[in-house]
Amino acid sequence: MQALDKVLAQVGRVVLGKEEQLKLALTCMLANGHLLIEDLPGMGKTTLAHALARVFKLEYRRVQFTSDMLPADILGVSVFDPATQQFSLREGPVFTQLLLADEINRATPKTQSALLEAMEERQVTLDGVTRDLPQPFFVVATQNPVDQAGTFVLPESQLDRFLMRISLGYPAPEVELQLLAGGDLREQVRELQAVINSEGLIKLSRVVGKVRASHELLDYVQRLLDATRSDDRFVSGLSPRAGLGLLKAARAWALISGRDYVLPEDVQAVWPSVAEHRLSARQGGSVAATTQSLLQSVPVIRR
Amino acid sequence: MLMPAPIRNLYERWLARRLPPARQVVLDQRRIFIFPTGYGFFYLLVSALLFIGGINYENNLILALAFLLASLFMVAILHTFRNLSALGMRNGDSESGFAGEEGALEIVLFAQRRDHHCVWLRWPDQDAQQISIRRGEEESLWLNLPLPERGRVTAPRLRVESRFPLGLLRSWSYVSMDHYCLAWPRPQESPDCPADGGKENQQSFSSGQTGNDEFQGLRNYTAGDSLRRVDWKGYARGRGLNTKQFEEPVGGRLWLRWDRLQGLGEEQRLSILCYWILQLDPQRQPYGLELPGLTLAPDTGDVHRWRLLDALASYPDF
Amino acid sequence: MARIYQVPSHTRLWLALAVVLCSIPQLVKGVLWQTGLLALVILIRWLVDHQRLTLPGRIVRSLLLIGAVGLTFFSFGRLYGPEAGVALLVSLFALKYLEVVQQRDAYVVIVLGYFVCATALLFSQTLGMFLYVLLCMMVLTTCLVGINHSDTRASGWVHGKRAAMMTLQAIPMMVVLFLLVPRVAPLWNMQVGGDKARTGMSDSMSPGQISELSESAELAFRVDFEGEMPSRGQRYWRGLTLSHYDGRTWQQAIPQGIPESQYLYRPGNNKPDWYQRIAEQRESGLPGYRYQVIAEPTQRRWLFSLDVPFPIYGDVALAKDMRLVANRPVSERFAYRVESVPAVAEEIDLTRLERQLMLSIPEDAGVKARGLAQQWRLESPSAEGIAQRALQYFREQPFHYTLRPPRLAMDPVDDFLFRTRRGFCEHYASSFTFLMRAAGVPARVVVGYQGGERNELGSHLLVRQYDAHAWSEIWLENKGWTRVDPTAAVAPERIEFGLREALENSEEGSDLLDDLGLRRFSDGGVLALVSQWMDYVDFRWQTWVLGYDSVFQSEFLGDLLGAVSPTRIAIALIVSVGVLMGLYALFLLWRTGKAKQTLMEREYWRLHQRASERGRPLVVGLSPMQLCDAISEQWPQAAGAAQSWAKYYQKLHYDPASPPNKQQRRHLRRLRNRLYKLLD
After folding, report:
1. Are residues A65 and A192 in the same domain?
2. Residues A122 and A152 occupy one common structural domain
3. Predicted confidence (pLDDT) at residue B248 exceeds the cutoff of 50
4. Which residue numbers of B have CB closer than 8 Å to A's CBs?
5. Which of A26, C145, C295, C459 has a 20 to 30 A CA-CA distance from B29?
6. Residue A248 included in any domain
7. C548 touches chain B (CB under 8 A)
C-alpha cells in the first residue's frame, strides 16, 4: 500500500493538483482496465500517461491518431523478407505495455475498432497468426470533446471497452501558478523514479481481486445497475459487463484507499467515471447530472 | 367541499391540528381517510340487487355471488388504504417565480414498503397530477403554485388521493408540507439604475450591446453557467455542452444598492431592483446587490441572478 | 371526430376476454344469432383497436340494438320472461362492450357482466358452473383493476395477479356471509326452468313399465343417513301405493268420500286421528332412521322414504298410506329430512271404505287365479297362511325373474300365472296382490325403489332408476299393513344384492348389463374411484350449498351459536368479518414484498429517519459515513458520536471478515442511542 502512495506522490509531482483524477487513473490500471481521457489539448494527458508509464517502469508508446491511419499502422504488418524468403511480422505500436492513443476519435472507425479489439482480446491476429500483447497492457486514449470537425465519435458499444473515462480539466489558479513556475515538465517526467516494476503491477492487480466485497455491497451495486435500467432518463441501462467493471474499479479504489474490503463510498467514487460514458441520456437530459442523481436516490442500505 | 364558513373553519383547524406541517411525511392510518366513490355505491347497489334476486329465485349461488361482490368491496377497502399507506413525501426543490405568476415546488415521493400505484396529488383549485412509485424508489413531482405576492409562499395543504385498485373507494390524505416557494418582486420599470460603479454612461447597459465582450474559447459546461453562453451550435453538432468564455468586460463591477432608492416604499424598491437585475443580467457585466442586512458580491450568470432575485424575494428575512 | 380511448391498452384484452367468458354459458344454450352478434362485436372492436376501422357511429349501434331486440322477439315470441330476458341482457352486454370509449363505459360493461354471470347461475347450479362464474368474476375484477391503472407501462398480467389475490381474499368472507346472513323469504315468487321432465316413476303401473325404467342408470335420489343405515334387504323406498286395478293397470286411489285433510297430514295443520296415534307411538321411543333425501326433479309430487316417515323439515306432507307428498311438484332438486319408524305401521287402521277398496278386483279378470285363491283360502284360514301359500306357489312353480318378459295376452294375471311365468317385479307384485285380494286379504301394490348403492366416500346412498321396484302390502289384523315382496321369493338375489348382481347371475348374462351401461361404481378401478369422488362432491354441493336454506341455516346457526337470535347472528357476523378483515390487514399492511430488512439495515434506517425528522430531510443515497457527515454538519456537537457509530457500522456491515454478532449489534445500538441524545 505504501508503494501505491509513493506512486501517487511521484505522479503528483508532474500532474499537479489532480489527486482525484490521478487516483482514478491508478484505479483503472490496478483494475486492469483501459482509460479514456476526454479533454482539450494541453491539459496534461500526455504527461499523465507518460508519468504512469515511468513510475511503473512500463514500456511506453504514443500514437497520434489521424484520419489517414490504417489498422496496420497500429497493429503491425506482415513483411516479406527477401533474405529468409518468409513473411515476418513487423509489430505495430500496439505491442507495448502502455499505449497512449492520442485523439482516438480522429481515426476512421475501422482503425478504431482494430485497436479496440486488441484492447479487448489483449492479443492481435494478423494473417491468421495470433500474437499476445505484452503483459500488462494498458491503453490510455484521449479524445477532444470540443473540436469534433472531421472526427469519428466512438460509438457507445466501443466506449464500453474503456473501464473508465475521466477528464482532467483546468488546473486551479494556485496550481497553475506552480505549474508556470515549475519549468519543463518533460524533463521532470524523465526524472521520475520507478516505484514498482511491471511485475509488481501485475501482482497488485491480483491483490485487487482479493479485496472483499460483502453481500450487502454487491446488493448495492446491483441496485445501482438496476436503477440505470429502470430510469426513463437513460436510453438504456448499464450492461452486466459494466457492473463487473464497476465492482472491480471499486475494489481497486478500496485498495488504494488502504482497505481490504469495499465500502459504498468506493463504489460512489468510481461511479461517474465508470458509468457516465456508457450511458446516454434521452433528449435534453444531462448524463452527468442524472448519473450523479442516482447516487442520491438509490438507497445505500437496502430498505 | 361546500360547507358553511364556521364549520369549515372548525374543519380546517381540526385538520391543521391533526396534520401539522412537516418537511417529511409518511402516510399512516392517522392521516388516511377512505370513502366509497360513486361507482362504489353503485357496486354495492348491484350487490344488493343480486341479493334480492337470489332471495326471490331462492338461488343460493346468486346469493353467493352477491356476497362475493360485497366481500370484494370489503377487501378493496384494505387494498385502497394500503395503496396510500406508508407512502412517504418530503420536500424537494422549489422553483421561484415572479409575483403574480407561478412558481413550482418539487415533492419527492418515496416508497419504503410497497409499490404505490396511480396516486394523484394536487393543491386546492389546481389540476391533479398522477404518479406511481415503485417500492424502494423515489419519484419527484413538480407542482405549480400560484404566487400572489412577493415573499415566501408556503405550500398549501396538498391532497394526495388514490382509487387504486378497484376504483370503488377513494382513499385520500391531506399533507401539509413545510415547504415554500419564493415569489420574486414584480419588476417595475424605472429609468434610473440604482447602481454604483461601472461605466458612467448608464445608457449603454440598457441598450443591450454585447459587442464589448471578446470571445476567448470554450470550456466544459458546468452546472450554473449561463445558458446564454452555451455553444449551442457546437452542441447541435454533437460536440457536447460547452460554455463560451468571454473576456472580462471592461466596464468593471456594478453595485445595485437599496440605499439609492430613498423615498420609495419597500415593495417598490424591491420591484425596481428586480427590474434592474433583469436588465443587467444580459450585459455580462458583473453586478452585485446591497440590501439592508445582505450584500451579494458582483458576479454574472444564471445562478447569480437567481441568488439575487431570491434575496429580493425573501427580504427582509434572508 | 376522433375519440380518445381511455381504457388503457393493457386492459383491452381482459375486457374482451371478460365479455366472451361471461357470455359463453348463455350462448351455449341460447340461439345461434347471439353468438354471431358477439363475434361481430369482437371483430369490430378488434379492428377499431388496431386502427383499421373507426368506432361505429350512433346509427349503426342503434340499428344493431334494434336488430337484437327484433331477433329476440322473433326467437322467443316475447321480450320478457327468463329466456327472452336473458337473451336480451346478453345482447345488450355485447353491444355495450362495442361502445366502450371511456372508463365509465367500461364500468357499465363490468356491471352488466355481473348480471350475466348471475343469470348463468339461474339456469345451472352445478359446482362446475359456480367455479366457472368465479373465474368470470376474477376476470371482471381484473378489468376493474386494469381500468383503474392509468400507467401506460403497466402489464396486464399484474392486473390478473392482483385480481386473483383479491378474489381469493374475498372468498372466505363470501363463505362467512353465505353462512351467517339470514335468509329472507322471497319477496315475490318466481320459477324458472319449467319442465325438466326426466325418466321416473309414473302414477300407475302396467306390465313392462318398471322394466323400462330399469334400463336407466340415471339418479333418482340420494340419501344421507344421520346414524346407521338399514341393510340392503330392508331398504324399501316407498313412493306410491296403487290400490285400484282395472285388470291391466294398477292405479293410485283413495276411497271416495274421505276429505284430504283426513287423509293427508301437513305439519302445522290439524292432526288426523291416525297421525295422532302413530305420533304417540313414536314418542314411546321406538327405534328409527334419520336421514336426508335429495330428490332429483320429477315434476311429480310424490317423494320416497322408508316406512313410516315423519317429516322433520322440508315442504312435505304425510299421507295415510305411509308415504310422503311434496306440496308442489318437484321441479328442481329437492331436499327433505325424515325420521322413519317402521314399528308404528301397526297403529294405522283400515276403515271400512278402505277395506272395500283394497279388496276390489274387476269381475272378469283372472278367473283361474280367483279359483286358485279361493282354494288357498279354504286350506288356511289366516291371512298370513294365504300369503305363505302364494309365495310358496311362486317358489315351487317354474317362475323366472327376467328383464325381458314375453308379452302378455288379454288377461295378464292368468296369462302370467299359468302360461308365461317369466316376469319382472311388477308382474309378481301385481299378480300377488291380485291373488291376495281374490282370497279376501286386503292388499295393495307399492312402487318405489329398492336397495341403492352406497358411496363409500360420503357414506351416502345413491338410488338410481334401475333400482325401481314394485312389491305388495297386505293388511293383517294384528300387524296392520305388512310388506310382502313376491320377487324375493323368485329371485332373492335381486333384493339382497341389487339388480346388477341379479342380472349377472341370470341367464341373460352380463351382456345385457353392458348394453344398458349399468356398470357403475362397484366395478373397481380408477374410473370408478373418480366417479365416486365426483358423485361425492356433487352430493355435498347439493346438501351443503344448494340445500342451505333458511331451515338448514337456523339449524346450523343453532349448533354454532347455541341459540338463534338476531343479536347473536349480528354479533357473529360482525366478529367473523372483523376477524377476517383484521387478518387481511395484518397480511397486507405488514407484509413486505421482498426479503425482510435485516437488523443491520433497520439500524441504519432508524438513525436515518430520526435525523430526517429532527433536521433537514436526507436523501436515501447516503452511506453510513455520509450519514454521519450529514449529522455532523447539522449537529456539530454530535460529530464524535456519529463518527464512532458510522465507523463501527461500516466495519460490521461491509467487512465480510467480521459479520456482526449479537453483542456487536447491541454495542452499535448503544452508540446510536448515545447519538440520539445529541440530536436535539
Report:
1. yes
2. yes
3. no
4. 112, 134, 136-138, 218-220, 223, 234, 237-242
5. C145
6. yes
7. yes
